Amino acid sequence: MLELRPILSALWRHKISALLIAVQLGLTLAIVGNATVVIQERIERIARPTGVAVTDIVTAQFMPIAKNYDRLEAFRLDLDMIRQLPGVAAATVSRAPLTGGGSGTGLYTAPNQEIGATGGAQFWGDEHLIDALGMKLVAGRAFTPNDITEASFSSGWRPNMAIVTQQLADKLFANGEALGQSIYFSGEDNPIEIVGIVERNLGPWPNSHNAGSTVFFPAVMDTQWFDYVVRAEPGQREAVAKLLEEKLAERDPQRVVAVNLLEDKLDRYYAGDNTMIQVLSGVVSMLTFIVALGIVGLTVFWITQRQKQIGVRRALGASRSAISRYFLLENLMIATTGIVLGTAAAQIFNRFLASEFEQPALPLSTTAICALILFGISLAAALVPALRAANISPAMATRSV
């Protein structure tokens, strides 16, 4: 406690430099805390279960060269061939999920409504849809061949049944009794019975606020934007992808075929999130290094200026540990001031970001962890200069006057 007065006196004499380090530490905490929340949120988002067998799925699209191309006939012939290929577990024609492209709809629990829709993504597919995507059916049944209709968007066809994800079922029917209930499109009175519920499917836009609210309708749609979704047996994905491209081109050479792995498409979708994680991680590392460097520089500067005082204290019997403790305590006071300022700044900054950019809230626990880490880095940065100060001999300090 006797060291506090000289420490406070020394800090007051160097108040500008001490304040700058404290402010730098505080700003670093504010930035690091909020960056950490963003990084955690992005990592958790990428790591979420998709409800789809991503690592086993291959997708294929084709663009016909000839005009008046019969897509529905091509779908039938292609799927018959694909399902016979070695290594193929299941195949369907549907828009592939998790790729950033698709369509959405608004659903209601009563007819002729136009306000208060429950939003969700929509897919069409045949009786192999659930199996091809590798989804888990938790209630009801899958589509059967008799349920499937061949249609186009311009035909005015409307489904009379659907399969929904558990998340969408819970949103539509909070009482948990979605199976067998009817849902409706906006302003329509055509009932669509929920015949099955799957555990999960994030839909086409995993970063959307409606991700996971997905509905599936029993139809093969005549449109150029649909994929063949092919689930390979475990370990056969690459072989199936190569064979799929060859056989599709061989069956009908009058078209352009593109084959992709669903995992690659998902990686491209999350490319922005991964880039943000890398950039923010780099910023956090750089700021932490700069703060540590500033603390080391300031402590070394102060030690150089105080060699005479250190020598006098050593001559009067001060131990090396007492000298080291003096500078560590001095740094502790600066760090504590910076941490207090940074904690307040982090919360204020987070509230602004949350209101303007929908950033996740910054928990106090995360702020506390970041503060402890920066606190430890601050003390570690001051440790080596403090040990150096303890090794200054009284004779060297005297000769330096």
Count the domains.
2
Strand content: 15-25%
Task: For the record, give the distance between the C-alpha atoms at the N and C termini, rounded to a whole number.
Answer: 29 Å
Protein structure class: alpha+beta
Q: Note the main sheet.
A: 6 strands, mixed, barrel
Low-confidence stretches: none
Per DSSP E runs of 2 or more residues, the count of β-strands stands at 12
Strand order of the largest sheet: 3-4-10-7-9-8
Q: Calculate the mean pLDDT score and round it.
A: 87
- The backbone outline, from C-alpha atoms, is elongated
Query: Strand-and-helix sequence, N→C?
Result: HHEHEEEHEEEHEEEEHEHHHHHH
Work out the radius of gyration.
Answer: 32 Å
Bin the helical content. 40-55%
Total helix count? 12
Keywords: Cell membrane, Membrane, Transmembrane, Transmembrane helix
Protein name: ABC transporter permease
Domain ABC3 transporter permease C-terminal: 284-394
Pfam families: FtsX, MacB_PCD
Question: What secondary-structure arrangement, pairings included, does this model have?
Answer:
Layout: H1 4-13, H2 15-47, E1 57-64, H3 71-82, E2 88-94, E3 103-108, E4 118-125, H4 129-133, E5 137-140, E6 149-151, E7 161-165, H5 166-172, E8 182-185, E9 192-198, E10 214-221, E11 227-232, H6 237-251, E12 255-261, H7 262-269, H8 271-305, H9 307-315, H10 320-357, H11 364-390, H12 394-399
Parallel strand pairs: 4-10, 6-10, 7-9
Antiparallel strand pairs: 1-11, 1-12, 2-11, 3-4, 3-8, 5-9, 7-10, 8-9
Helix pairs in contact: 1-10, 2-8, 2-10, 2-11, 8-11, 10-11
